[in-house]
Structures are given as C-alpha cells and as structure tokens.
Amino acid sequence: HFDNFSCWQFGDEASAHKEGLKVMMEEIEFLSKEDLEEGHIQVSVFGGYTDERGDAAKNSMSLLSALHDTDRLVEIVHFCVGPFNTCKDKEGKNTAILIGIAMDLRSQIIFPASFPWNN
C-alpha cells in the first residue's frame, strides 16, 4: 500500500515507492526461491483517481517511475488509475471507484475490497 502522504511529497529522489518496491521485490525473491529464475514479477496497481489537486496522479506516476527503474523485470498486468478509476460522488466530486482490492489466490480472481485501515 502506497499513499499520497508517504510517497511523492518529498520528491522523486526520496520516493518511498523506490524503497518500498525494493523491500517488496526482496521479499518476493526470498519467497519465490528458484521459481523466480523461470519468470518475472507481475504487478497490478489499483486506486489512483483524478482528484482536484492532482495528488493521485503524482502518486501514480511516482509508482510507475519506481517500477520502471527497478532492476528486476516486472510485467504490469493492471494499472487501474486516473480516469479509469474515477467516478462522481453524491456531491458531484471525483472519487475513486476502487480504493482497495483483494485476490482469491486459488482462482486468481480480483475483486473490490475495503480494509479498516484504508477508511
């Protein structure tokens, strides 16, 4: 989970995305062991939307940049951000369609989810 506060406000060079991705990639490599040698890491990104200040766009671009800059080969499977994840709320303001997702590991079906720490 990457949010606006921790990721882009300190600039690209201090991006929490880069450090966070590094830690995640190391964990994936450790858990995958030799299986990772046969393939690459698949990545799905959900949640950024078209907000008035443009914070979500900055966050999404910072994350995309960090994914591009990683040494590990990654395949972006889903990138559901910006206008593709934006709808109007009751007051007519832009809001995210998806604020969280979960995946059934057996079927690999992705579905919307909400978590108490994300509200």
What does this structure look like?
The chain has 119 residues and is an alpha+beta fold. Helix content is 30%, strand content 23%. It is built from 3 helices and 6 strands, in the order ααβαβββββ. The strands form 3 sheets. Strands 1-2 form a two-stranded parallel ribbon. A two-stranded antiparallel ribbon has the order 3-4. A hairpin with a 4-residue loop joins strand 5 and strand 6. The two termini are 13 Å apart.
Considering the chains and any ligands shown, give keywords for the structure.
alpha+beta; 119 residues; single chain; 30% helix; two-stranded parallel sheet; two-stranded antiparallel ribbon; 3 helices
Helix content: 25-40%
Number of strands: 6
Please tally the helical runs, counting DSSP H or I stretches of 4 or more residues.
3
> Which value, in Å, is the CA radius of gyration?
15 Å
Could you give the distance between the termini?
A: 13 Å
Strand order of the largest sheet: 1-2
- Sequence of secondary-structure elements: HHEHEEEEE
Give the overall average pLDDT. Answer: 79
Which structural class fits the helix and strand makeup? alpha+beta
Residue share in β-strands: 15-25%
Described by strand count, sense and barrel closure, the largest sheet is: 2 strands, parallel
Uncertain segments are: 4-11
What form results from the Cα inertia axes?
Answer: globular
